[in-house]
Amino acid sequence: MRPKTKLIHAGIVGDPHTGAVSVPIYQVSTYEQEAVGVHKGYEYSRTGNPTRHALEEVIKELEDGVRGFAFSSGMAAIHAAMSLLKSGDHVILTDDVYGGTYRIFTKVLHRLGIESTFVDTTSLQALQQALQSNTKAIYVETPTNPLLKVTDIAAVAKWSKANELLFIVDNTFSTPYWQTPLALGADIVLHSATKYIGGHSDVVAGLAVVNSEQLGEELHFIQNAIGAVLGPMDSWLLMRGLKTLGLRMEAQERNAEQIVAFLNQHPAVSKVNYPGLSDHPQHTLASTQARGFGGMVSFDVGGSAKVDEVLSKVRYFTLAESLGAVESLISVPARMTHASIPYERRQELGITDGLIRISIGIEDAQDLIEDLTSALSESGL
Ligand SMILES: *Cc1c(COP(=O)(O)O)cnc(C)c1O
Asked: Which positions carry N6-(pyridoxal phosphate)lysine (predicted)?
């Protein structure tokens, strides 16, 4: 099955009992047992729910994995994956990971005895230097947020295997439509499905897919034991969102291409970060590792005063956290998504006060470009 067909036909389709073309929303917590332990596969909805199961099947197939899991948020999925580790273990992470990921590692997992080191995972040398005798996992986000740095998944997978580590990839920015990390050697793929997979800014959710039955058993144990599961209605909304994922990803990338070309020649913009640009440091890798460059772009306008001016002028870019939905969003990483990262650390990473991040929607590109043209102009047109 080719990707766009997979989005429609993978997993569990419809309802065999009624012929309904859409998987029903099984709004139920418990299931009748004919005798103790004799049931039709479901006992209690924290352990398993048919609507959630249908979603877990489709994401498993889309990511080319062995078993899928749906959680109540991206952070809950990350927390579940990290619960595979124990006190005393060490994790190496990409240095400009999502702010919430940085926070759970430094403020929560740290208290539980899980150590972390943040390095530039685009450099195998940096990985090697960060390796400790208690290192158990490597956690990569690629492309990163907000600088769109690209890590070589296949190369890290090889290094990870050689060192017997668990290799986890946050695939939120690319989605399985553009990139399938398990096929490149990763062990676990995580998603904030709140973003592109949901795609309509109407649900908070997380997904995880593993590459082996054993990891599947372990993660299901954790999902059921901790209990941060996705409800049936939200599971259904994600399945609905997934059907148009291909169309949306293609449209967002076409818009991104035009907007990036516009920003790149604009005198008020000092730097544009986008993996599709030929001067992006990992452009060649991005072109081969993924099937598309995505719809996330960041650019520098010099300082916070100019940022505020742009924000006050845009009409079609909504100032909001989050990304990946049909409507274009604009944000200021230093003061929003990455505010939980200390100032000095942000400067080291290049998350400057003048950096603007845009998540490009499916509007007409010409309207978006006109919006940015007036927002960036000196005259305040
Ligand atoms: C938003 C996001 C998360 C966290 O997901 P939530 O659904 O907000 O809990 C994790 N990773 C990335 C890359 C994100 O963008």
From this structure: 195
Please tell me whether residue 139 adopts helix, strand or coil conformation. strand
Of the candidates 6, 67, 195, 346, the residue annotated as catalytic is: 195
Q: Where are the domains of the chain?
A: 3-87+134-139+154-243, 245-378
What is the three-state SS of 78-106? HHHHHCCCCCCCEEEEECCCCHHHHHHHH
Q: What is the pLDDT of residue 361?
A: 98
- Residue of 78, 102, 108, 192 to test ligand 1 pocket, by largest number of atoms within 8 Å of CB: 192
* 219 Cβ contact list (under 8 Å, min separation 6): 67, 69, 80, 81, 84, 188, 208, 210
187 in catalytic set: no
> Rounded to the nearest 5°, which phi and psi values hold at 64?
55, 40
Q: What is the 8-class DSSP label of residue 23?
A: P
Sheet strands side by side (includes 329-331):
271-273, 296-300, 355-359, 329-331, 318-319
Which atom of ligand 1 lies nearest, measured to the CA of 172? 13
CA 269 to CA 264: how far, in whole Å?
Answer: 7
Q: What pLDDT is recorded for position 380?
A: 47
CA of 280 to the centre of ligand 1 (A): 24
The tokens describing 166, both together, are 């668990």
pLDDT score recorded for residue 339: 86
- The first and second tokens of residue 120, run together, are 């530039």
Task: Specify the fold of 3-87+134-139+154-243.
Answer: Aspartate Aminotransferase; domain 2 (3.40.640)
Fold (CATH) for 245-378 = Aspartate Aminotransferase, domain 1 (3.90.1150)
Backbone angles phi, psi at 106, to 5 degrees: -85, -25
pTM for the complete prediction?
Answer: 0.96
pLDDT along the chain (381 residues), means of 10: 93 94 97 96 97 98 98 98 98 92 96 97 97 98 95 98 98 98 98 98 98 98 98 98 98 98 97 97 97 97 96 96 96 90 87 96 98 86 44
Pocket lined around ligand 1, Cβ cut-off 6 Å: 73-75, 98, 100-101, 141, 145, 170, 172, 192, 194-195, 204, 206
User: Has 306 been annotated as catalytic?
Assistant: no
Residue 188, SS3 per DSSP: strand
Let me know if 345 is a catalytic residue: no
